[in-house]
Design a protein that fits this description.
Blueprint: H1 3-16, H2 53-57, E1 60-65, H3 73-76, H4 81-84, E2 87-96, E3 99-108, E4 116-119, H5 125-138, E5 141-146, H6 179-184, E6 198-204, E7 233-236, E8 251-257, H7 268-273, E9 278-283, H8 290-296, E10 301-307, H9 313-334
Parallel strand pairs: 4-5, 4-6, 6-10, 8-9
Antiparallel strand pairs: 1-2, 2-3, 3-5, 7-9, 8-10
Helix pairs in contact: 5-9
Length: 336
């Protein structure tokens, strides 16, 4: 083995061991975030550049719609005009790489300078309610992926309106500056020219499959729980288990880069001090998810999760209340 081959072997070995990032990127100074590392963090990057508003306007359709007349399960559950007072709802549609996408965009016209709220899976019903509650209370803009009028099956989790190839998971489609990413993040910058904090809300299957974890024993089929740990997820359970963290499936997930950088990730120390259930997600290379895109693009991002308790009124109210409590905490602790 000559010296060049030996150097390549050594670099490959230390990447495999997780000692450095595979892209060997320049240090990221992270100047636009709260409680981010003061030390330089290196990591793989994806392009932060999106289509401009002018470019995006040429490839999407957007129209104001009346939420009281929309034939969709989510809107049927929110047929109350008081909910929508002060909110503008738009229907957005576009085609990207043979996939036809539909979004709902909900903007708080009275409080425009809030977070960017995202709900990516149409079959997760409590998060829809939680996002509406959040954008109404704290302002900003919310974007929802819509895969059809009915959301009573797991099929509505995916976009099946594709011209070729398999169905698409909306949370595995953030690969760069294409139409999809640009449309979802079109409102990332607020009217002051600052990046908004991104709050993504999900619900998950009860418990977890033990095959997905190197610690704890699960009795369910999910992948999200404060008891799950593996090469990607590093849990930090609430010590007090105060509501809503008496539930192992209710937690905040925070992505981080690099070795031993989890405690310096966005808002990590504040959430730890507040005794949240926290799942630290280690990112090395992107899997196309929003959390990966956000951390690799230096965006302030937090994912709030709670258990999917069912579609009944009482079950939705329970999950909605847990989301509401986590949102209040995240806004108090993480918003500028």
């Amino acid at each position: 083995m000559n010296r060049l081959d030996a150097n390549k072997f050594f670099l490959t070995l230390i990447v495999f061991l997780g000692l450095v990032s595979p892209s060997f990127a320049a240090p990221n100074t992270m100047t636009n975030s709260k409680q981010k590392p003061t030390a330089a963090v290196t990591g793989p990057t994806v392009s932060p550049h999106q289509l401009s508003s002018e470019e995006l306007a040429k490839v999407i359709s957007s129209e104001i719609v009346d939420p009281m007349t929309i034939d969709d399960d989510d809107f049927l559950r929110t047929r109350d005009p008081s909910i929508w007072r002060g909110l503008e709802v738009r229907r957005i549609a576009f085609t990207d790489n043979g996939a036809h996408w539909a979004l709902w965009r909900v903007a708080n016209t009275k409080r425009p300078a809030g977070p960017l709220w995202l709900q990516l899976h149409d079959n997760e019903n409590a998060p829809f309610l939680g996002v509406i509650d959040g954008v109404k209370k704290y302002g900003g803009v919310a974007v929802f992926v819509d895969t059809g009028p009915h959301d009573n099956s797991s099929a509505s989790r995916f976009n099946r309106d594709v011209e070729f190839g398999p169905r698409i998971d909306p949370n595995r489609n953030f690969w760069g500056p294409g139409i999809y990413t640009s449309a979802l993040l079109a409102d990332l910058v607020n009217f002051r020219g600052e990046n908004r904090m991104i709050i993504s809300i999900h619900s998950n299957s009860p418990s977890f499959d033990s095959r997905n974890s190197t610690c704890g024993i699960g009795t369910g089929r999910g992948e999200i729980s404060i008891l799950v740990c593996n090469d990607t997820m590093f849990p930090r359970p609430s010590r007090s288990r105060r509501y809503p963290f008496d539930d192992d499936d209710s937690l905040a997930i925070i992505p981080f880069l690099g070795r031993w950088q989890d405690k310096m990730a966005f808002c990590a120390r504040s959430l730890m001090k507040a005794d949240f259930n926290i799942g630290f997600e280690k990112i090395v290379t992107s899997d196309g998810s929003l959390s990966n895109y956000a951390i690799l693009s230096d965006l302030d991002y937090i994912n709030l999760e709670t258990q999917d308790r069912g579609a009944g009124e009482a079950e939705l109210a329970d999950a909605r209340a847990r989301i509401h409590t986590m949102v209040d905490g995240a806004m108090r602790l993480c918003a500028d």
